[in-house]
TrEMBL record, chains A, B:
E.C. number: 6.3.5.3
UniProt xrefs under Pfam families: PurS
First-listed, main subcellular location of the protein, grouped into a coarse class: cytoplasm
Keywords tagged on the record: ATP-binding, Cytoplasm, Ligase, Nucleotide-binding, Purine biosynthesis
Quaternary assembly: Part of the FGAM synthase complex composed of 1 PurL, 1 PurQ and 2 PurS subunits.
Gene: purS
Protein name: Phosphoribosylformylglycinamidine synthase subunit PurS
Catalytic activity reported: N(2)-formyl-N(1)-(5-phospho-beta-D-ribosyl)glycinamide + L-glutamine + ATP + H2O = 2-formamido-N(1)-(5-O-phospho-beta-D-ribosyl)acetamidine + L-glutamate + ADP + phosphate + H(+)
Pathway where it operates: Purine metabolism; IMP biosynthesis via de novo pathway; 5-amino-1-(5-phospho-D-ribosyl)imidazole from N(2)-formyl-N(1)-(5-phospho-D-ribosyl)glycinamide: step 1/2
Role summary: Part of the phosphoribosylformylglycinamidine synthase complex involved in the purines biosynthetic pathway. Catalyzes the ATP-dependent conversion of formylglycinamide ribonucleotide (FGAR) and glutamine to yield formylglycinamidine ribonucleotide (FGAM) and glutamate. The FGAM synthase complex is composed of three subunits. PurQ produces an ammonia molecule by converting glutamine to glutamate. PurL transfers the ammonia molecule to FGAR to form FGAM in an ATP-dependent manner.
Superkingdom of origin organism: Bacteria
Cross-referenced InterPro entries: PurS, PurS-like_sf
């Protein structure tokens, strides 16, 4: 069962990578750009076949390793 | 209009970050883990209000800056 964990900086947390991307896009001539935020996505292939338990496992992985919950929030999608 | 661009390594491209995450998760005792792949997600706030044009702009940004299309694929979601 495939699970996607998306990790983003929390609102209010400085995101220098997102700022750099925004500046680079503006430099390339892209207009009408507001805030840009950069996060990461981790695609996990789990042996678990129950969607609820796969979600639970992925949330536990996110809390323990994938996200720094002090400054990042995460969401889990079971595909 | 908010747009999410998700960039992942293409199938068959070595993904050392994903491998490292997989090893770390196994080391923490998580079992039943198959392939782990790591990518990035960029959240863009665009002034554009037409969903089709917002998607087009984001795809152009992905091709020109956000993704290295030789080794990465991307997908765009208009929220």
């Amino acid at each position: 069962m495939k699970v996607l964990v998306t990790v983003m900086p929390k609102a209010g947390v400085l995101d220098p990578q997102g700022k750099a991307i925004g500046h680079a896009l503006a430099g390339l001539g892209f207009g009408g750009l507001g805030e840009v935020r950069a996060g990461k996505v981790i695609e996990l292939e789990l042996a678990e076949t129950d969607p609820a338990r796969a979600r639970q496992a992925a949330e536990e992985m996110a809390r323990r390793l994938l996200a720094n919950t002090v400054i990042e929030s995460f969401r889990v999608e079971v595909l």
